């Protein structure tokens, strides 16, 4: 009987929750072992001093195919960002808009100093081209760097420095646009087809929603797995669990000795939250700091996107730093001074709320793939892997990998005649 099988999933992140959902659909009642105190993995939201703080600035791209498969956008009460970005420089700022989404901004974009007229025509051409390409075509395109791709496409250094670098540094969490052009093309296409959004009550709502769909799955929190030995799961407490099937939906190199050193170190980001009396942007738009002398890469007032991020009538500002920095009180003050330089608001008005130093923010994947055969999830007999590190760093890839791992496990449990 399927319900009598001891099926375990290690990790209650997005991959693990999707795997559990797919297993339930096939009649299994899996057990998830989660090291932390809640679901979500890297997608978590904390409540601090009347604010909702996502652990690292994150968004949901509504065009993600897997998100459309598994999520109810109405139930999440999504709040949307305006397409484009605000470029902040000392003594100067200007907006970058998508005239295809907002025709009223077409004239201002034509005269925007973000790039040349040729750049703006190239942007339209790129959007049209990528919309016509399937995801499979994108992920089998030449595996060149994003920076090389942009230059080869004909974009000027001006628009690369003013827009592409600061915008995609915040997505890729690396500062040279060395990330594969496959990822750039996929993300650019997702922005063109849909919207960037956050649930009204923070990104935690996504894993919470997925958890609500699990009717037969048991989740055991604060369960640290020490190692795996065949079918046996050894917990830090010393308890040994025996599985009939297992999905590792966490960093596998930390519990599987044979994979030690085979998963590249994840990329890091520092996320600082400040509160102010009111937003100096006053629209749901991400702002980019293009000057390389600044530590800050991008910022956004989360309360401009969803008012529910604050319960005390103050504005909540999220600041992301992709450069290597030492996290301390001095950093929080330095960033406040930077913000003062581009806004003319006294640095003392930026009240520090909390700083997150996120070491495992995003996997570093070289050979990115849109999907994998279910059988490629297999680590060894009855043990399967799931995680966006297997494909490319995103919610979409996390969901794909969880689904593929569940499919592989289900196949492995079928009797052979």
Automatic annotation (TrEMBL):
<dbReference type="GO" id="GO:0016491">
    <property type="term" value="F:oxidoreductase activity"/>
</dbReference>
<dbReference type="InterPro" id="IPR036188">
    <property type="entry name" value="FAD/NAD-bd_sf"/>
</dbReference>
<feature type="domain" description="Amine oxidase">
    <location>
        <begin position="14"/>
        <end position="410"/>
    </location>
</feature>
<dbReference type="InterPro" id="IPR002937">
    <property type="entry name" value="Amino_oxidase"/>
</dbReference>
<dbReference type="Pfam" id="PF01593">
    <property type="entry name" value="Amino_oxidase"/>
</dbReference>
<protein>
    <submittedName>
        <fullName>Oxidoreductase</fullName>
    </submittedName>
</protein>
